[in-house]
């Protein structure tokens, strides 16, 4: 098959959204954005119109940008379950480029008065904050260089420099909307952008800070859709279904959810047309999702990798991992969350098991297990402190951390297997620098010395010791024994 997807090649799928002018700049042109915000935006444009096309900015990867340019910025989202596959072509991107190739353009686009929203999916790892203090990491060499001047490379630097330019060239209102799995992602982003501007000499930062106070909003949002990485087999399957070649297709599960705070300084698309919920309770939605879904997802990924299975559905099909997931969800995460009005937590939990079990998706344990040092910092500290302060002990969250350490920083002589080896993590080097004397030592390095999960957990000695002991059990007696031990406690 040689013809590529374009606005002129017929496909089996209904025509994409007609082209409109851009109103959104999106930083982080990965699969998640293309299967989530883009799909909601397509529904909004179909229902209510508006100049809300999206300029997609990839941070480094040229592959998707090249594919999108060759295809008139069209690509298919394939909604996949064991029962069905359905295709949709959102067609809402007006342009795309790689930030590393054209860093000056990022600032120019953020300052462009036609742009009224900047959305972000740069992952937990893309916000340049220190996990222990939650503040802007001014010691990070990329942030430090951005503060000195020149074209910014960090996301926070790009936003701050974009606001500076915008303040100086008309000061049109702008909303900055984080769509990453961070708690209070709006105020967190605002705090980091402010901190960047405050680090600048007065004459440079003051106008931008005044403009930020006057005309910029940072709504929080909770995003949810499981979007695995694309594989060559999947690309071939989509081509067969579409009838033309698509080099940038995205697989996604049927479930999708977006809860957003309705505070948009310069207007917004009618995302509710795609099912987005506008609510004052975003914090409650975020907590529910980041703890119940993501926290349990991490446990399934690390235990699954240690058991040697490649995917999340393979892992949740193992009886003891399913039991551990049910126990951590119900007894350790759920007590720490307050459900938003109208959300039935039991129903939500039942759906989670069906979602994790979606065997058609092939969601890899190594994908969910990657970047655990930044992801777990969002997922576990609140629930651990809640449990300890109410007289319960979070044995299965301790097991999650022990399994994470076994995967990322395996003690000498222990082989965690290929799926653990495929996980990437920015803290891997710091965790593995120098020998450790057993599990408690490594747990203390991660939680107490490196403060990977914030300051509060660093003082919870009983938790740190339990992580260390479970790690020793994994190494000496195997992951099955550690699961049995944590479940029996
Ligand atoms: C996962 C998430 O990789 C991970 O850490 O837990 O990407 C998860 O699939 C999404 O947040 C679902 O909305």
UniProtKB/TrEMBL annotation:
- What is this enzyme's catalytic activity, as reactions? D-mannitol 1-phosphate + NAD(+) = beta-D-fructose 6-phosphate + NADH + H(+)
Q: Which major enzyme category is it?
A: oxidoreductase
Q: Does the keyword Oxidoreductase apply?
A: yes
Q: Can you give the residue ranges of the Mannitol dehydrogenase C-terminal domain?
A: 282-473
Question: Which GO molecular function terms does the record list?
Answer: mannitol-1-phosphate 5-dehydrogenase activity
Task: Indicate yes or no for the key word Transmembrane.
Answer: no
Give the InterPro entries listed for this entry. 6-PGluconate_DH-like_C_sf (IPR008927), 6PGD_dom2 (IPR013328), Mannitol_DH (IPR000669), Mannitol_DH/Oxidoreductase (IPR050988), Mannitol_DH_C (IPR013118), Mannitol_DH_CS (IPR023027), Mannitol_DH_N (IPR013131), NAD(P)-bd_dom_sf (IPR036291)
Q: What is its EC number?
A: 1.1.1.17
Instruction: Look up the domain of life of the source.
Output: Bacteria
Q: Name one GO biological process term.
A: mannitol metabolic process
Keyword terms, alphabetized: NAD, Oxidoreductase
Mention any Pfam family matching this sequence: Mannitol_dh
Stated family: Belongs to the mannitol dehydrogenase family.
The protein's name is Mannitol-1-phosphate 5-dehydrogenase
The scientific name of the source species is Microbacterium enclense
């Amino acid at each position: 098959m040689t013809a590529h997807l374009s606005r002129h090649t017929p496909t089996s799928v209904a025509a994409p959204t007609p082209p409109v002018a851009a109103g959104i700049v999106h930083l982080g042109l990965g699969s998640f954005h293309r299967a989530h915000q883009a799909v909601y935006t397509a529904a909004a444009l179909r229902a209510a119109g508006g100049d809300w096309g999206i300029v997609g900015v990839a941070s480094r990867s040229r592959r998707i940008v090249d594919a999108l340019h060759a295809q008139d910025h069209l690509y298919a989202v394939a909604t996949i379950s064991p029962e069905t596959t359905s295709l949709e072509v959102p067609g809402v991107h007006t342009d795309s480029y790689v930030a590393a190739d054209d860093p000056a353009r990022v600032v120019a686009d953020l300052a462009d008065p036609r742009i009224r929203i900047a959305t972000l999916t740069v992952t937990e790892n893309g916000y340049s904050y220190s996990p222990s203090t939650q503040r802007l990491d001014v010691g990070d060499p990329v942030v430090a260089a951005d503060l000195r001047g020149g074209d910014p490379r960090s996301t926070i630097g790009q936003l701050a420099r974009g606001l500076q330019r915008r303040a100086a060239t008309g000061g049109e209102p702008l909303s900055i909307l984080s769509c990453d799995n961070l708690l209070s992602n709006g105020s967190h982003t605002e705090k980091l952008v402010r901190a960047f501007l405050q680090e600048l000499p007065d004459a440079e930062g003051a106008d931008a800070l005044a403009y930020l106070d006057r005309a910029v909003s940072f709504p929080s949002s909770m995003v949810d859709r499981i979007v695995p990485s694309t594989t060559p087999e999947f690309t071939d399957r989509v081509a067969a279904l579409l009838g033309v070649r698509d080099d940038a297709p995205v697989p996604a599960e049927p479930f999708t959810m977006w809860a957003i705070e309705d505070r948009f300084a310069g207007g917004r698309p009618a995302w509710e047309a795609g099912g987005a919920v506008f609510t004052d309770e975003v914090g409650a939605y975020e907590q529910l999702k980041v703890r119940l879904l993501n926290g349990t997802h991490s446990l399934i990924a690390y235990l699954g990798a240690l058991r040697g299975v490649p995917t999340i559905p393979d892992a949740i099909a193992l009886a003891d991992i399913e039991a551990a997931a049910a126990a951590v969800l119900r007894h350790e995460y759920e007590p720490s969350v307050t459900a938003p009005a109208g959300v039935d937590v039991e129903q939500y939990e039942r759906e989670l098991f069906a979602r994790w079990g979606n065997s058609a998706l092939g969601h890899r344990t190594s994908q969910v297990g990657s970047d655990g040092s930044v992801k777990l910092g969002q997922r576990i500290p609140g629930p651990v402190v809640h449990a300890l302060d109410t007289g319960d002990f979070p044995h299965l969250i301790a097991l999650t951390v022990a399994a994470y350490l076994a995967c990322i920083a395996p003690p000498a002589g222990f082989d965690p297997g290929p799926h653990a080896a495929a996980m990437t993590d920015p803290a891997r080097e710091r965790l593995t620098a120098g020998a450790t004397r057993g599990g408690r030592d490594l747990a203390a390095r991660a939680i107490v010395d490196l403060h990977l999960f914030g300051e509060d957990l660093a003082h919870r000695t009983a938790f740190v010791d339990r992580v260390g002991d479970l790690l020793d059990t994994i190494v000496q007696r195997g992951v099955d024994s550690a699961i049995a031990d944590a479940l029996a406690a």
